[in-house]
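quick one, 170 residues, struct below
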Amino acid sequence: MRNVILIGFMGCGKSTVGLRLSYRLRRTIIDTDKEIEKEEQRTISDIFATDGEAYFRDRETACLRKLTGMTGNQIISVGGGLPVREENRALLHELGQVFYLRAKGGTIYERLKDDTTRPLLQVDDPLSKIETLLEERDPYYMEASDVVITVDGKSFSEILDEIEKNVEEI
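---
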């Protein structure tokens, strides 16, 4: 069976949906951010602060390459910026069926406004930063995805039902 891959902006629910989906579909879950933190033995915030965003993006690509050598039938949740790289979008399609969890800027802001662990949002106007990044990234998310799920105003159960209904059992 193919992997189910969850992409989308930070705060759209990839980690929580991925975990709940793994229980529902009885599949293991891999979170690329957590894999990178484990390999680096430091947080993403520390990686950004010490080595910069470009280094972190290289680590994301390396993580995806490693995953392409593994068997399918897993849930893979990826970092919000990962699909921006063209190489990563190709690797995502190689890895499995890609679901874009799409959320509006206001939804994301409400979820993340008190979260100090997001390096890209440690700015004076986080809502504006979210809106700008969403506008930049949405075309990449759309290109990378096989299925788009709008998550605004939906319960986790509704999102899971929609994903499950669209999973291809190839």
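The beta strands are 3-7, 28-31, 74-77, 96-102, 147-150.
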